[in-house]
Amino acid sequence: MKKQCCVVIPVYKPDFKFNDCLQALKRQKDVDFDLYIIESGNWTTLYEKDIEGLSCKINHIDIRDFNHGTTRQYAAQKCAEYPIIIFLTQDAIPANEYAFRNLIRCFKDKSVGCAYGRQLPQKYANFFSSRARNYNYPAQSQKKTFANAGRLGIKAVFLSDSFAAYRNEALISVGGFPKGIILGEDMYVAAKMLLAGWANFYCAEAVVIHSHNYSFLQEFKRYFDIGVFHIQQPWILENFGKAEKEGIHLVLAEFKYLFLHRPHLIPNAILRHGMQYFGYWLGRHEQYIPNRIKCCLSMNPNYWS
Prior knowledge:
Layout: E1 5-11, H1 16-26, E2 33-39, E3 56-60, H2 68-78, E4 84-88, E5 93-94, H3 99-105, E6 112-120, H4 127-136, E7 142-144, H5 149-152, E8 163-167, H6 168-173, H7 185-195, E9 199-209, H8 216-232, H9 234-240, H10 243-261, H11 266-284, H12 291-297
Parallel strand pairs: 1-2, 1-4, 2-3, 6-9
Antiparallel strand pairs: 4-8, 5-9, 6-8, 7-9
């Protein structure tokens, strides 16, 4: 009997959060799914016991072939028989037993091509990590289409494969995930879908626990990669607006809060956002930087090999 969906988790050097993720998968209710794990040679027997009770397939790939777009497209082709594919990262932990069910329910609307859930910060998340999660993942659900993209701007195509689902029919219709992309495969597909008439749905009722406490250097590298993505895919910004505008909204809201409640963190915020902007600016000018230098500037050095 065909399952409702396939859950795909790319795995690379997993830690304890992956164990927590697998245990949370076992507690999911009102949804029938197969689990598909793609790992890059770091799998150990430590996790064999954790997948017991799950309908799971494990596929091993070379680390050199492990990247944002190609790996997910490989999984999508392997899971072509399923009407819906859920992508989850190894450190995203479903917050309750109805996370998958609630996300899948979005596809009852036949116009929805992709959907993503809410991400709440880990209990040990720092202020900046928590604020970013609360800003990007509000408590209200929202359907986003090309018709309201003028009002939403770049947020219309915001999507996170840390916890996202795709209607296979829609994914195939836009050509699947792009290969050879540094990151942003989720935004790329969402933009393609909106231009093709599909909708992108944010489901606040489908929740995972997922956040990162990035250092200043990690923030720089992450935004360098975002800048590279935007300069290499200019059609996204041309159709949905500049990313800088949304970034300014986030920064202004953050500084307003800090000024009123946590003024001692303002110097940290200035340095953090300065590193983000500098990294983003360099990323948008990556064509002038030698690859050996870009390997040091990027959070994905293998991309430049």
